[in-house]
Specification:
Blueprint lengths: L6 E7 L5 E7 L2 E6 L6 E4 L3 E5 L1 E6 L12 H10 L2 E6 L10 H14 L3 E4 L9 H7 L4 E5 L11 H13 L3 E5 L11 H7 L2 H14 L5 E4 L5 H6 L3 E4 L1 H5 L21 H8 L7 E2 L8 H4 L16 H10 L5 H16 L14 E5 L3 E2 L18 E2 L2 E6 L2 E5 L21
Parallel strand pairs: 1-4, 6-7, 7-8, 9-10, 10-11, 11-12, 12-13
Antiparallel strand pairs: 1-2, 2-3, 5-14, 14-17, 15-16, 17-18
Helix pairs in contact: 2-3
Length: 420
């Protein structure tokens, strides 16, 4: 006789409107309908119940950058925003450029992360792609077509060869597509000018032209409607490019400095109008300390923290009618899981039992509400809907500011060979 469910989420309204009870046992959904007995029952009447998000693009820092963020604080921030899977980028210090470095990073996350995680491999001219795949790299990159914080660019020939080698191991190449022109970098307008929309569009087209091997491409953090129109791979956009513009900041405020840059309000509105052409929303969570962001503009590092505010900002736009709830679920959970090849969270039998429960009420974001170590946000006073509770594998791992320890997993890439 099968054991009873460990958790039942009662009165869950599905995106199509039907109300069901979701039974979860051994970390997966086992029934959607009427329910029986359970160890724990949670009434979800009147709430948004979302399959928990997969953030394909985070920088969890740690190591020599632990003053900015680490796996404990970064994963708390993720759970506090309804995210139960994060994909860590490899431009750490030191970078994830060898199987040994990858294994060390996995061990660090296994010891300290409160949420599921995956780790990407660096991409350089001499990376052992096959060995990185066997060691468990989820994807390759972000691969830099132009330099960014803690990431060096590949030349055209090196990039073309890298894409060929990633394709040979059936990998996914994640691309940071920008061009950088010469000139001063003294304020947000000049930062935008140096890393222009025209340059981003050219970079997207050039990377695609260099992809003679037809490697799977995922284009990270595109910041303009024209770039989305030019893209042929999967398209990722961040909340900061959707909801922030450089016009909202003092012109020399480093809190708005990010790569690719925040664009004009006109470009921001055009980008949001391409919502249906966006495959994935990811945060590009890139925390820096308040002191670093207080330096002169030209010296301050680029990057904005965002894993905790990503889904809450989107739900704020669901409440005001700008976005639909099914499209938010698709872009933050279903599609990222499919692209990465990890088990999806969802309402169907067999889906991963990861959910976030939200009261249908917006609050104004304040930095002191958030859990990132960096201690600041570019979204101060923006309306957002934060989760009241987060479920990971059928267990409560976040509830009203508390983080009971769950059983998070490492999701290696499909090339992983245990013991390699």
């Amino acid at each position: 006789m099968e054991s009873r469910p460990s958790l039942i989420l009662c009165n869950v309204q599905l995106p199509e409107g039907r109300v069901v009870d979701l039974s979860i046992r051994k970390g997966v959904v086992v029934h959607a309908g009427s329910s029986g007995a359970s160890e724990v029952r949670i009434d979800c009447a009147g709430m948004f119940v979302l399959p928990a998000a997969v953030d394909m693009h985070v920088h969890m820092r740690g190591g020599l950058q632990s003053g900015k963020e680490d796996w404990t604080t970064g994963s708390r921030s993720a759970l506090g925003g309804g995210v139960t899977v994060v994909v860590d980028q490899p431009n750490t210090i030191p970078p994830i450029d060898s199987p040994g470095a990858l294994r060390d990073r996995v061990r660090d996350a296994q010891e300290h992360s409160l949420c599921h995680f995956a780790i990407n491999s660096s991409v350089t001219a001499d990376i052992p792609f096959d060995e990185m795949g066997r060691a468990g790299a989820m994807a390759f990159g972000e691969t830099f077509y132009a330099p960014s914080s803690y990431g060096e660019a590949l030349g055209r020939d090196a990039l073309s060869l890298a894409l060929e080698r990633i394709h040979a191991v059936d990998g996914l190449a994640t691309i940071h597509a920008e061009e950088i022109s010469t000139g001063p970098d003294l304020d947000l307008a000049l930062h935008d000018e140096r890393r222009s929309v025209d340059g981003e569009v050219r970079a997207v087209k050039e990377v695609q032209n260099l992809n003679g091997s037809h490697c799977r491409l995922h284009l990270c953090h595109l910041s303009s409607a024209r770039s989305i129109d030019a893209a042929s791979g999967s398209v990722e956009v961040t909340p900061h490019h959707l909801f922030l513009s450089r016009d909202q900041f003092r012109k020399d405020d480093p809190r708005g400095k990010v790569n690719p840059p925040l664009r004009s309000e006109k470009h921001r509105r055009e980008l949001l109008s391409r919502w249906d052409g966006i495959d994935v929303i990811a945060s590009d969570h890139a925390p820096h300390t308040i002191a670093e962001k207080g330096e002169d503009f030209s010296d301050a590092p680029s990057g904005i923290p965002g894993v905790e505010t990503m889904v809450p900002l989107l739900l704020g736009k669901v409440l005001d009618g700008t976005l639909s709830l099914p499209s938010v679920i698709e872009k933050t959970s279903s599609t990222p899981a499919r692209l990465l090849g990890i088990p999806p969270a969802g309402f169907a039998v067999g889906d991963r039992g990861d959910f976030a429960l939200y009261q249908k009420k917006a609050v104004r974001i304040r930095a002191d509400m958030l859990h990132s170590k960096c201690g600041w946000t570019s979204y101060e006073n923006h309306p957002a809907v934060f989760p009241e509770m987060v479920i990971l594998g059928g267990e409560v791992v976040y509830h009203e500011g508390e983080f009971p320890r769950g059983k998070p997993s490492w999701f290696p890439g499909k090339g992983f060979v245990p013991g390699s």
